[in-house]
Each structure stands twice: as structure tokens, then as C-alpha cells.
């Protein structure tokens, strides 16, 4: 037997790979099509009222040309295009194809039922429990429960609409015909889902279209009738309250496949992530921010210890309560800012490995401690306002952002001890600066008569022998200053 003749391969064409074509021929020959199969077929020719298609085997498929015409009589596909069709008959000469079952009579409906081939039906009206549908010249019934959810949402507007159905029952010579659109959609969903899952794996990046939104996330179509869910926490690196802040139905987006699971009812749940498909913003944070940089941000969360500020989507920094103000002591963060407020901050420290950024609001202003040595030198009399009383002493505000402490021991040794003990927040008090530590931002205060007490304590150590009164005064002051410095 001549393989060239049987396989119809030209012997004078060296570009043809005989082994490869033989393997392809074997695969095509072994493929069996039966009525009810759905195929993807390429249009290879059109002649008169017929369309010829390549269905992947030696015999061509044949379809009525009217199956490719739209409502206006215009073709929806041309030579070279691939269309989806159903096998409605198989014989030795050809394979009959159709986009849906056509014809008239009970026999065609029975064939559609037995082969599970869709039929086109026009919804004539609603009735008790469902819809009356005209299909293949017959009147049929589709229960309301067998319509799809999307159709039911527009139940009042579907009269005269033409849809596809599966025939589930043909009885009494065609007087009892029952249809189901839901069964067809569920079948298409299963087939589409199987095809999708066969070609993807967890972690793959996929293209999809947002179909609908819910308070907890967004649904996106990955394949015909196959949706996945993007939880609101996976929609964006930024903090969002509602999905519509970042996506809307119809948006084409890229997502990462996180998981495929089945619920208790056997339904497949596909979990997706939009933000993970965009990449982790912390990987580039050091290229976008640096210590000392001034940045704009939005307050997204308040805590007892500070405020979190969003600098970029997914990048939050913390303004600690101690970094909010130089001018006043902040007790409640909510007293100084509110969620949603835009503020200007300075970046103090960045730690990508810990996903932490330290920010400062107070560094954006003038540091009141910058010239504290000139304003409040040791020994200077000062007037302040009592801020609060603590178990160990009295806090006094000397100027905005400058707080000093008068210890209880210092107040108790004063002639004004009883008056000092009665001071309440908001009252004025006259004191002197006893110790100043700019680095630690600490000022120790003492009552006004503390200088007199110290001067009296030095008199017992004065010796007038071999010294003038002026010289002894200088020595005493020097020693007094040295002791103060030691404190």
C-alpha cells in the first residue's frame, strides 16, 4: 500500500515532515464525534447555503449558512474564523453541525433532548410558575426556577427575547415540552471551568473582567460563565472601605490566582488577588523615600500611641505621639488630627524588612529647644503656668513646647511650701532655673527663695582672715556654680 496515496502527501515536497503528518493523521482518524458533541471548527469554505468547516478529522463538517447570520442577515464569521458548533448528525459523507438545533416538529425536539443540543426559543409571555416559549414551531414551558439569575433580574423585559435552552422533556406527542435555560448555563459553566483549570495553576497571573461588586469584594470573569472573587483586602495595597474606590464593572484587570476550593455544596470557589498581581510596594520603598525627606500623606488610622499615615498605596508610616508636636504635650492623638486628613510629615527612619517607617510631624516646625540655653540659663528667674501635678513634683510650662519640673523636695524646703502645695493647673508661678539639660530636654526648677537659702548656707564657710570680702564672694559664687553643675 502506498502511504503517499492513502495520506495524500506530495512526494516532491521536501518541506513536509512525513512522520509528523502521519502522527497528526493518526490522531485525527482516532477522533470520534457523536451527536451532541460541541466542537471548535474553522471555516474553510462557503458555497451557496452551506458552510464547510474543519472539525479535526478527515471528514468536513457542514453547517447551514443561516446559522452564521445575525438578526439583520449579516454574517457573524468568515473563512478562516473559528466558531463553536454542535454535532447534530454523523454519516459516512459528512458531519452535520449547527450553532443550535433547528428544524420543526417533535422529532427535532426529541433529537435535541436526546443529544442535549441547545435550541433557540422566543419567550412569548409569562405565566403562572414560569414562561411560555416558542421553540421549533411548538409551544413549550420553562419554569421560573430554570431561568438564569441574570434573566430573572429583567423578568418584565424579556418578552419576545430569543434565548437558548435545553429540552428536558417531550411528552404526549409534543403537547408537553419543558425547557431549561439554567441547565444549559450550568453545563457551559462546568465545561468552561474544566477548560480553565486544566490550563492554569496556583500563582499564575490571569487577565479578567470585573463583572459585579459586593460589600466584601469584587467578582471577575476569567472565562465564559466562570467567575473568581477578589476579597476587598486583595483589591489594593491601599486601605479601602469599598471596592468601588478602586474598580468598577467592565474594568479589564490582571489578577493572581490564589486558591481553588469547593464549598460544602460542591461549588467551586476561585480566590484571586489584584494587589499581588501589581507587586509588593515595599520592594521599592527605599527608591521612593529616604530619611529626612518631606512627604505628603493621608491619615488612615489613629491609635493611643500615634497615627498611621498612608504615603503611597500600601505604604503606611507611623507618627508616634511624641513626634506630633513640640509646642504642646499631646494626650490624645485625635485632638490633633483626624482620619482622612492630608498632612505633611518628615521621614525619620525606614525599615523595609520590618515594613516600618517612622515619621515626624513636629520636625516640620521650629524646635523650641534650639535656643533654650539662651532663653533659660541656669539661675534665671522665670514665670510659668502650672501644667499638672505628679506624685514626684510639679510640671510647669515655661513657653510653648518647654516644660520644666519642680521636684517635691525643692518645694518642701521653701518658705512658700504651703502656697506651692496648693497650686493647681493653669495658675502662674514664679521659679528659678536650677538645672538645664538640653540633650535630654529637661529643666529642673526651684522656688525663688532657693537662691537665698543657698547663700545663707555659704555664710558659715566664709573666713575673713587673709581675704577681702569681695574675693570671698567670688570664691563662694564659683563653688556654688560648680556644685550646681555637678547636680
Description:
With about 475 residues, the protein is an alpha+beta fold. Helix content is about 20%, strand content about 40%. The protein contains 12 helices and 25 strands. The strands form 5 sheets. A 5-stranded mixed beta barrel has the order 1-2-3-5-4. Strands 8-7-6-9-10 form a 5-stranded antiparallel sheet. It is rod-shaped.
In short:
With 487 residues, this protein is an alpha+beta fold.
What strand line-up does the widest sheet have? 1-2-3-5-4
Portion in strands: 35-45%
Indicate the percent of residues in helices: 10-25%
Q: Quote the average pLDDT.
A: 81
**What does the overall shape look like?**
rod-shaped
End-to-end span in angstroms?
115 Å
Instruction: Please state the CA-atom Rg, rounded to the nearest Å.
Output: 43 Å
- What's the number of helices? 12
Residue windows where pLDDT falls under 50 for at least 5 positions: 1-16, 24-30, 455-478
Work out the number of β strands: 25
Amino acid at each position: 500500500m502506498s502511504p503517499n496515496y492513502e495520506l495524500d502527501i506530495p512526494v516532491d515536497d521536501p518541506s513536509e515532515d512525513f512522520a509528523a503528518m502521519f502522527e497528526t493523521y493518526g490522531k485525527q482518524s482516532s477522533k470520534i464525534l457523536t451527536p451532541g458533541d460541541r466542537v471548535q471548527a474553522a471555516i474553510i469554505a462557503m458555497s451557496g447555503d452551506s458552510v464547510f468547516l474543519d472539525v479535526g478529522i478527515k471528514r468536513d463538517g457542514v453547517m447551514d449558512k443561516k446559522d452564521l447570520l445575525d438578526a439583520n442577515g449579516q454574517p457573524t464569521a468568515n473563512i478562516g474564523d473559528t466558531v463553536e458548533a454542535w454535532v447534530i448528525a454523523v454519516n459516512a459523507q459528512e458531519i452535520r453541525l449547527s450553532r443550535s438545533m433547528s428544524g420543526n416538529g417533535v422529532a427535532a425536539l426529541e433529537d435535541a433532548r436526546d443529544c442535549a443540543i441547545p435550541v433557540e426559543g422566543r419567550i412569548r409571555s409569562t405565566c403562572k410558575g414560569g414562561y411560555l416559549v416558542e421553540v421549533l414551531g411548538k409551544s413549550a414551558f420553562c419554569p421560573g426556577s430554570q431561568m438564569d439569575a441574570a434573566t430573572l433580574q429583567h423578568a418584565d423585559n424579556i418578552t419576545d427575547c430569543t434565548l437558548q435552552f435545553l429540552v428536558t422533556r417531550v411528552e404526549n406527542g409534543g403537547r408537553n415540552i419543558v425547557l431549561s435555560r439554567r441547565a444549559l448555563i450550568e453545563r457551559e459553566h462546568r465545561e468552561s471551568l474544566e477548560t480553565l483549570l486544566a490550563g492554569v495553576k496556583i500563582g499564575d497571573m490571569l487577565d479578567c473582567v470585573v463583572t459585579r461588586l459586593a460589600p466584601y469584594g469584587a467578582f471577575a470573569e476569567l472565562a465564559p460563565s466562570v467567575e473568581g472573587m477578589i476579597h476587598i483586602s486583595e483589591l489594593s495595597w491601599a486601605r479601602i472601605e469599598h471596592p468601588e474606590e478602586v474598580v468598577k464593572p467592565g474594568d479589564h484587570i490582571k489578577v493572581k490566582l490564589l486558591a481553588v476550593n469547593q464549598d460544602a455544596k460542591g461549588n467551586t470557589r476561585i480566590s484571586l488577588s489584584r494587589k499581588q498581581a501589581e507587586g509588593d510596594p515595599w520592594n521599592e520603598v527605599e527608591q521612593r523615600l529616604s530619611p529626612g525627606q518631606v512627604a505628603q500623606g493621608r491619615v488612615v488610622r489613629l491609635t493611643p500611641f500615634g497615627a498611621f499615615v498612608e504615603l503611597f498605596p500600601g505604604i503606611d508610616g507611623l507618627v508616634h505621639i511624641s513626634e506630633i508636636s513640640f509646642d504642646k504635650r499631646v494626650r490624645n492623638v485625635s485632638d490633633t488630627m483626624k482620619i482622612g486628613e492630608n498632612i505633611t510629615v518628615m521621614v525619620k527612619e525606614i525599615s523595609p524588612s520590618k515594613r516600618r517607617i517612622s515619621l515626624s510631624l513636629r520636625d516640620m516646625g521650629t524646635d523650641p529647644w534650639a535656643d533654650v540655653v539662651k532663653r533659660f540659663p541656669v539661675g534665671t528667674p522665670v514665670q510659668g503656668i502650672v501644667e499638672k501635678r505628679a506624685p514626684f513634683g510639679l510640671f510647669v510650662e515655661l513657653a510653648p513646647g518647654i516644660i520644666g519640673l519642680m521636684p517635691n523636695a525643692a518645694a518642701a524646703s521653701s518658705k512658700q511650701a504651703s502656697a506651692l502645695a496648693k497650686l493647681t493647673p493653669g495658675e502662674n508661678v514664679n521659679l528659678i532655673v536650677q538645672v538645664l539639660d538640653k540633650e535630654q530636654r529637661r529643666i529642673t526648677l526651684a522656688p525663688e527663695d532657693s537662691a537665698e537659702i543657698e547663700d545663707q548656707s555659704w555664710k558659715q564657710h566664709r573666713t575673713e582672715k587673709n581675704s577681702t570680702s569681695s574675693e570671698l564672694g567670688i570664691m563662694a559664687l564659683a563653688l556654688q556654680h560648680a556644685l550646681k553643675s555637678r547636680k
